[in-house]
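User: I'm curious whether this sequence folds into something compact or stays loose and floppy. Could you predict its structure so I can see for myself?
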Amino acid sequence: MPAKKSSRKRSSAKRSPRQRAQKKTDIRSLSFFGILYRVLRAPFRILTRITQNWPTALKWPVRLGGSSTILGLYLGLVLSGIYYLVACFYPMADVAAMPTRIMINDRHGNILKDSEGNPIGYVYGQNRKIIPYQDAPQHFIKALISQEDKRFR
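Assistant: Here's the prediction. I'll summarize afterward.
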């Protein structure tokens, strides 16, 4: 009887290439999720195979860092897909209905224009109240001037 046990071990260890190929699952017989699982697992298996003969002190930090990077890429792909789906169904009528624009005026009430006569800019938004220069708080004016250069005035 003991001889049969050892012969079984030998026969299982000496499989032909054909037997090994039969053991592997054919990709045509897999479902969509089976294929997806194999595709998503492939970079981790490649990373493991690359680092298998490295010293332990170097192997595990590289595997952890590489796996974290791969997971981050997968997360970025998922978030990009979600953003794309949200953007596809965003109502474009809301974009067309932006609040009215207000032209930027100087101290004297004139519209600010460049040297060619084109308006310089607009302020978009709602609930804006235009006040004269004299009614603006002095500390606000000083804060704006402190951010500008010496040629501001």
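Summary: The beta strands are 101-103, 122-124. The two ends are 105 Å apart (CA to CA).
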